[in-house]
Amino acid sequence: MNFYDKVEGIEEKIVEDRRHLHENPELSSQEFETQKYIMKQLDALNIPYEKVGTTSLVGHIVGEKSGKTVALRADIDALPILEQSGAAYSSKKEGLMHACGHDAHTAMLLGAARMLTEVREQLKGEVRLLFQEAEETFSGAEKVIADGGMNGVDAVFGMHGMPIDVGSYDITPGYRMAGCDTIYVKFEGVSGHGSMPHVAKDTILPAAEFITQLNAMITKFVNSQSPVVVTVGKFNAGTKANIISKYAKLDISMRYLEEETRQTIHGKIRDLAAGLSKIYDVKIEVEIEESTISMSNDPHIAEIAMKSAEKVFGANKNVHGPIMMGSEDMPYYFKKAPGAYAFIGYRNKEKDTIYFPHHEKFNIDEDYMKCGAALHAQFAWDFLELNS
Prior knowledge:
elongated, 27% strand, single chain, alpha+beta, Alpha-Beta Plaits, four-stranded antiparallel β-sheet, 2 domains, Aminopeptidase, seven-stranded mixed β-sheet
């Protein structure tokens, strides 16, 4: 069965859903009206569902034949960005915008649901629909999982629009996106007059040395084949030119692929803090906050997804792009079931849909959504057929 042949009949509805959601963006875990809209669509399709997390939904399309369970996921939250896209259907909420395309992701999953309900009698198993809140804060997936959304799931699939050409996609086995930690380093010394540093305990100098040593550590202790990006994004210290600063604080982001690399850097950061604390006789406190883990496509599930994508896009449309050091909370689902994640092209220079997500001029070529909707349905169908 080829779902691309079926999608044209519902393309207008997919666009309608997306534009409604685009006009009415809501921030992470505040997507109450978005949730109501999705519920209304599921009710019309006679798809049972339950509320999970704060504003997430889990729908169930149960085939009339027994089989495995495959989950399809779409994120539903927006961003605190003032829209400058110029679209006729721009956000009606000043300062809020669907600048990451989650409106399209939601509309595509609803489109897939419409197609799959039409073949429910032939469906061999269950398609689980995960409409997930709070991807932007990396907290939604764990809420869905905690409330049982992944119970009994055998495979999971998701996608994200990206500025590659419409009609192309990227499904590649192995690592695809980075994990992310935020590291806070707090320094406490003794303030004093700038003319008498010997009776004070400066925090700016050890904080500055921490930054330089941090970057040196990466070159000496991390395998060069294991990508990692460490960025000091914030450095706060001092009150006046002639006052030795009692306090300093660094806010650091770290992106990584391999858990071994992550633990190595965590350990070296703590070692560095301990060493500088002793040298400069200041108190240094390290706090490490996990944002999300790295994402790796299961080779077997990715292979199924690639074959499904060929049915939708045609041959030679898989661009196999580089690993992205951006982050997602999709990999938490992969801890519960093997899965794959696809990047789908929305770029069209003639329509000025060229911007990366999180840009105030972000928009999509809506033609890409029929491909995404068809791919969701195609993957679910193919997985269940192969495992029946």
